[in-house]
Amino acid sequence: LSILLSLLVPAHTTRSPNCGGVLTPSGLKYLAEVSKPHAESVLRQDLMAPPAPDPSLTSPSRNQINSVKVDEFSLTLIPDTGMRLSIDVDLGITSAPSTTKEMQLSILADLHVEMNPEGNLELVTSACKPTLEELQSTEEMDRSAPRTSSGSDVDKQINVEKICLEVSKLLLFPNERLMSLAAPFPITPSCQVRYVPLAAPMYSEQGIIISLQTTFQVSGTAIPLPVSPVPFSMPEPASSSPSHLTLAFSEHFYTSLFFALEMAGAFNTTILSPLTTVTLAEKITQMGSLFQEDLPVVLQAATRSSPHVVLEEGKAILKLLLAAQIGAVSPVFQSFLSVNVDVSARLHLSVTDTRMMISAVAIEDIELSLAASDVGPVLAALLEELFLPTIREEVLARINVVLRGGVFLPHIASFTYTDVNVTVHKDYVLIPCNLQLEARTG
């Protein structure tokens, strides 16, 4: 796109984007398409309501708007500025029992999105020009040329100023929906994510570009995220995208996500080994002097350092560093070995509705090393023979339990994502998708 998201905001480590999105001209066209029936409903409600009595008229107006049909409704990009909304509305007006006029109300409005003092995005109208034109009348069939209506009773009945004042409400994404973009979304019961807009969007020929920064809360408290080593910039597509929307997520986004989950204790787990103290004593003789009875061997795993994610071409790898205390419950947990576990797990990314589904599909590499022992020296090969299969299986399962709910993507209320393609590149993930208005329920 030749526009760096990092240029949208001052260079500051706490205010740098780690994800973003581009709403394409195709996406704007779709938003206009689904907004058309909504606009018609709003205009019908406004225009067909009985007019307030006008004291300047000596006799009451007998004009009655009896049909409102939106003929054209389009949204186009104005690079560097915003969007242009163009609406043509056909009106059927009865001015007497035998007279029906057909008129066209045309509205041209310039819109853009601003950031208000509260940090929320707002759709703002910067210019609006309405025109009202008479197309046809049952009394004037021989007059083929349309004429502009001015100063008529119809003008007084149609409050064009009010329509212009509220023209943004004709779209299906008014400000309540834009505010929903930054709503907190749950990941686990104690961990939430928010996507905070860092600046008003920018407009280019390729689309509307929004830069976002994730913030995470653990048990209701915002946590400081690791500092991104490099500012994130929106990747430049090879050609104009046919998709409605392209989302991009940096490597820092994924590392921040797993950091927040680690802060929430999501990867801390207790693993029951198939071994017992007696079977273990066959391999480690000093075990016999610690435990007189046969007890199940238990592993208590916790993160010992912050996890991080590495994105390569076609591959996402989670690096998870754990410390496992190996012991038995007799009757309280008594540890006799401490083991460092370094795991590299390949992640699979997909999208369901508005959630990014992340699963660990394979352990690419796993290393065990002895950190401390109450039963004398234990060779690395023996540690792996005794504990590696169990740890491999249980760590993979634990990651998938933590991530099974998915992570909500930035989205506005009532819209979901379809035709999604997730591509992992070096340092970033690209998600082109289409928008779909969800059917109303209730």
TrEMBL record:
Residues 239-433 form the Lipid-binding serum glycoprotein C-terminal domain. One of its GO terms (molecular function) is lipid binding. Residues 134-153 are annotated as: Disordered. InterPro entries: Bactericidal_perm-incr_a/b_dom (IPR017943), BPI_fold-BPI/LBP (IPR051660), Lipid-bd_serum_glycop_C (IPR001124). Gene3D superfamilies: Bactericidal permeability-increasing protein, domain 2. This is TENP protein. The gene is Tenp.
